Amino acid sequence: MSRHLLSTTPPDGPDGDVTIQEPGGGRSAAPVRARRSLIALFAVLLVAWVGIAGVGGPYFGKISEVATNDRSTFLPESAESTKAQSLIDGFSDDDDVPAIVVLENRDGVTEQDATKLDGLTTALDDEGLLASEASPVIPADDGDALELILPVSSETTADDVEAIRTIISDEFSDSTGADSESGTAVTVHVTGPAGFSADLSEAFAGIDGILLLVALIAVFVILVIVYRSPLLPVIVLFTSVAALSASIFVIWHLADAGILLINGQVQGILFILVVGATTDYSLLVVARFRDALLTERDRLRAGLAALKGVLEPIAASGGTVIAGLLVLLLTDLASTRALGPVAAIGILVAMCAALTFLPAALIIIGRAVFWPFLPKVRPASAGAKQGLWSRIAEVVARRPRVIWIGLVVLLALPLLAFPQFKASGVAQSDFVLGESEARDGQDVLAEHFPGGSGSPTQIVVADDQLKDAAKAVGSLGGVESMTVVANDSPSGTVAIDDEGTLQSPQGGGGPDAAEVPQSSPPAPTEVDGQVLLEVTLSDAADSLAAEDTVTSIRDAVHDVDVQALVGGETAVDLDTNTTAEADRALAIPLILLVITVILILLLRSLLAPLLLVALTVLSFGTALGVSALVFNHIIGFSGADPSVPLYAFVFLVALGIDYNIFLMSRVREESLRFGTRKGVLSGLVATGGVITSAGIVLAATFAALAVIPVMFLFQLAFIVTFGVLLDAILVRSLVVPALVHDIGRSVWWPWRKRIPIDDA
What we know:
By secondary structure, the protein is of the alpha+beta class. It folds into 5 domains: 2-49, no CATH class; 50-73 and 208-378, Multidrug efflux transporter AcrB transmembrane fold; 95-203, Alpha-Beta Plaits (2-Layer Sandwich); 400-433 and 576-760, Multidrug efflux transporter AcrB transmembrane fold; 456-505 and 519-567, 2-Layer Sandwich (Alpha-Beta Plaits). Helix content is 57%, strand content 8%. The protein has 21 helices and 10 strands. Strands 2-3-1-5-4 form a 5-stranded antiparallel β-sheet.
């Protein structure tokens, strides 16, 4: 034996095959063939991924260029507002979006206020910020406010709207603000669709920088605590950043080619998902590598053993998540549909990075990657150390039924609040959290003018049905006034009363012009036998009350003309919410079905997958119930976007299956050797630490979404963060092991023949 030890090649030497017998009676290992070739291959992988990160890195700041936050672009062609818009465009050559300027003077607006506001149009037009002629200044009936509608191009950016706001602020800088003695103040806001779009773009502005920075810092801190090593967290983070660089590079080109349509929400989720998933997979690889180093001196053999051990669970879990995500391709809302392939690409690249770059780095560096706490080879006779997870396994073994029943009851209690989760939509003014000039302006506008001013609901109706349609709409609540497009009119429109009678337009072009009625009103503009009726709503155009009014308008005009189409900003919001609700109802059952089938094939059991999916759904319901209580009674949110539960379901269920697979694949492996009850305890001890760490990392990355001041992302961050922690720490660590231990060998029904019978 001494001769054999003396002739052994150094364990980390670069050349030749390696045959090692461990001190203290260890086993004799077979040589690793083609050592030089393998080391060279891993070195090439390292260089390749560094190159990928270098090429994809510059696209971090460019992906916003191919993202859009215009909700109308995500609607399917079958949506009524989409069909209506294609006809509405025929009534005008302009493709304008209204930016509404509202001035409020609590002491009553003055002639100077009106003159200044009217004079703005010249300055804005000189700067090229207007797409066409602005409206005249419109005074409020109460005399305390003025309104000016600025038509800006649909291509207008947030910077353009900010330029408009700056010019207005400079113009009124000497009159805005409050006088402490008199309490008077003049305030001017830019709101309307252009204003809200600019504020939303501004809210997403930090998505390329601060979101990723916060996520990476959070992950780094957690990894330092977990590994107590300065080098390993850097390597794992580089793995995540390299994967994200590659993902962004691919997705940018797909979006630039028009194959994918993405928005700020999808963009932010991509960043978080890739960082979180790559780190999770990396934790599994590192754990296996460290375990291998405890019984193997050679870094190459340890790395290959680790790679073999993680290949199946990572491929299975990643494949399951990808399959679930691709179900979203069946949805109608383009933003939801895009999330499927975008996130699937991210998961695929995350798997590749974790299975190629990270093992290569670990093998090249060897034990030094864990410095200063280097794993030492244990003699074969040495038993495993008793730790936290061994003690948890002992607790599970003593009272399994009490544990799983008690915790299931505890998890079920928040389901009572599940129906309180309001996900029927929110007003556009609530999208942005924190300061929003558009929201402040909308509040002022609604106080002094009809809420729908500047953003009318548009109805394309047959010319011979105009009178009846106007009468039907005019009889509804929530309708303030109506006009019909008439290009021969000085203002471009003609008022129409509740009886469907056209009103003679007043002469002049401004509020002080002489009111001289014409002998007869101009005829409405007709395009292919249809006219365009525009309805100003009493409620704010972005509100849920306005959506209810649009629903009533559609019912009314369809009774008059079944071919009539209702569009406009409010109709777009309504159709977006309706489509999102339909997508949610379609996608959630299909995702559950796909994941269940894959788990059945993977675990070669019918009962176990059904139990695991049921527990995952229970965990999701618990998270949503707790979120409902927090959102409604603590934070005070008005509601949630209909897509929030779907997105949360996708990530909690699909990613929760990751932990199921990590745990149960190891449990099945151990069960084949020791029986189910011993196997589940052994699997819990082996995977408990890595699953908990992975859950904390994933929760931390999703929590980073909360730094973006957008309600959708904040709500998603809270639900997923809470749900992942609940799932990884409680469900996967206690409920599942206790349930499997209680059921025993029958959990593998009906294909359980290969599983040894449990000891009595």
